[in-house]
Design goal:
alpha/beta; Rossmann fold; three-stranded antiparallel sheet
Length: 310
């Protein structure tokens, strides 16, 4: 199996190719500072490339969806000047497309039922327990068999050259035991449907990129280019917790929220910019967007609470 590859190009080349980016939040709660970094970074990269920027609501995991969270997200993004160039796409409206994709994968003969629970596979990559047939009673998930020894190589524009193997990751789930379509399948199908050329998102999703490349390859789809932004962490190095930095930013002054996100992305916004209108902040940010200052940076530390002016 050949390695899946995504390569970096210049802004001019991306614009000429019809750059299409996206921000795809899950409506499981309100937007926080980490999600704003992903939204703003993807927006700036699209605008700097004279491309389109779309918003997709990934509401596929219905048990975790919070009522009206999607509407609140949309309102918050609008206050920040971040508006989709096309109508919002909701994954919940795309179930027939995922079913069709499963049919394509089934035709390859590489899908197999898996009876393993999440608890049984939580300690590492899936060891292939059910590759020769399910070891326990249903309900069953469906996994895509990745050839042993397969390697996915891609050039991440921020995190640099990446190599992920089947041995490290195991076989991805494409339909869950509860019958719901898996995120790894849906995101690939939707990125192709929306003709996404560039995916700018948080580094917490870097480890699942190979799965998405392999699923896309099995479906005969072209790979997008990737840029994984640094993950926002606490000042002491811990994962962003339920604190002042991770509470809903819907109540923040939009200028403060944008300024803080620019600082976290090392864009060095001038101090006077925080008092300017949202349109001025975004205009400055697009003209001065420098993703290269983030190269090789997997994490970025949130400021101390006293530096946040909510």
């Amino acid at each position: 199996m050949k390695s899946s590859t995504a390569t970096a190009t210049t802004d001019t080349a991306r614009a000429a190719a019809g750059y299409r980016g996206r921000f795809a939040p899950s409506p499981t709660g309100a937007l926080h500072l980490g999600s704003l970094v992903a939204a703003l970074g993807s927006y700036l990269d699209a605008r700097r490339s004279q491309g389109l920027w779309l918003i997709r609501i990934e509401d596929l995991d219905t048990p975790r969806v919070v009522p009206d969270a999607a509407g609140q997200m949309r309102a918050t993004l609008a206050r920040l000047g971040l508006c989709s160039d096309e109508p919002l796409l909701y994954q919940s409206s795309r179930l027939p497309a995922y079913e069709a994709a499963l049919g394509v994968l089934a035709a390859t003969g590489r899908l197999y039922p898996c009876s393993c629970s999440r608890r049984e596979t939580a300690t590492g990559p899936y060891p292939g327990t059910c590759r020769e047939g399910p070891r326990g009673p249903g309900p069953y998930a469906l996994r895509l068999r990745i050839p042993e020894g397969a390697v996915a190589c891609f050039q991440d524009r921020i995190q640099g050259p990446q190599q992920q193997t089947q041995q490290q990751l195991g076989d991805p789930i494409v339909r869950r035991r509860d019958g719901q379509f898996a995120y790894q399948l849906a995101v690939v199908v939707d990125d192709d449907f929306q003709r996404i050329t560039d995916i700018v998102r948080g580094a917490d999703l870097l480890s699942s990129t190979a799965w998405q490349l392999w699923i896309g390859e099995a479906l005969g789809l072209r790979a997008a280019r990737y840029a994984h932004l640094p993950l926002v962490i606490e000042p002491d190095g811990r994962k962003l917790a339920k604190s002042q930095r991770s509470v809903a930013i819907g109540g923040w002054e939009p200028q403060v929220a944008l300024f803080e996100a620019l600082r976290l992305m090392r864009q060095a916004p001038p101090s006077g910019l925080a008092g300017r209108p949202v349109a001025d902040i975004l205009d400055w940010a697009v003209r001065n967007w420098r993703p290269e200052v983030l190269v090789g940076l997997p994490e970025t530390r949130a400021p101390q609470p006293q530096h946040l002016e909510l």
